[in-house]
Amino acid sequence: MDKKYLNIYNILVNKIENNEYQANDKLPSEKEIMNEYNVSRDTVRKSLNMLEQNGYIQKTKGKGSFVLDIGKFNFPVSGVVSFKEISATGKLGANVKTIVEGLDCIIPKKNIARGLELAGEDKVWRVVRVRSIDNEKVILDKDYIVQKFVENLTYDICKESLYSYIEGELGLKIAYAKKEITVQNATEEDKKYLDMKGFEMIVVVKSYTYLDDTSLFQYTESRHRPDKFVFVDFARRC
């Protein structure tokens, strides 16, 4: 298998991360890269496509490839932390906003019901929220919360903090979550709600969250624009 495109990709990533190419700089043309590294146009295009998918560059038709600002926000995945709690640390900057795009109580689709281990008539709250950082809409959160645990929700609660309400007002204890991270093609819904800036990929964090009595009460699909976040974990050798 031809791995030349990975070598070119890694070379260019190293130059971007070491500021040899800085934000808004134009990369050398496809032909210049071909000549410098003695590779084919197809190899160069594969490398550039990979750079674009991973948030390093933006390709503009007729103009070339431009380096993006790779200063990304650290987004923890190891704990059970709300967006508001992360925002309060200041790690996402000062200009952070939550926009509630949808709130309703529904009988969920079969895949959601199955994931939440629900019977046929059990209802869930569906909450759709967009997270804006520095005036850019970069996260789409879709929450499904089992109604038998949370009888009532309002737009104001969803705009502030679901977890503060669930723990502070309802007296429930959120204990742990199972998470899965994938990279997927962006959907029309992603493009509708987020400022995608031409990105065709989205980072998806799926979470199943449990109360301290092991009751599964929430499924969340958090969809992140790929250029804005580094997903971090803390691990200790036992």
From TrEMBL:
PROSITE patterns: HTH_GNTR. It comes from the Bacteria. It holds the Pfam family GntR. The keyword Cell wall biogenesis/degradation does not apply. Keywords: DNA-binding, Transcription, Transcription regulation. Residues 2-70 form the HTH gntR-type domain. PANTHER family: HTH-TYPE TRANSCRIPTIONAL REGULATOR TRER, MANNOSYL-D-GLYCERATE TRANSPORT/METABOLISM SYSTEM REPRESSOR MNGR-RELATED. This is Trehalose operon repressor. It comes from Clostridium hominis.
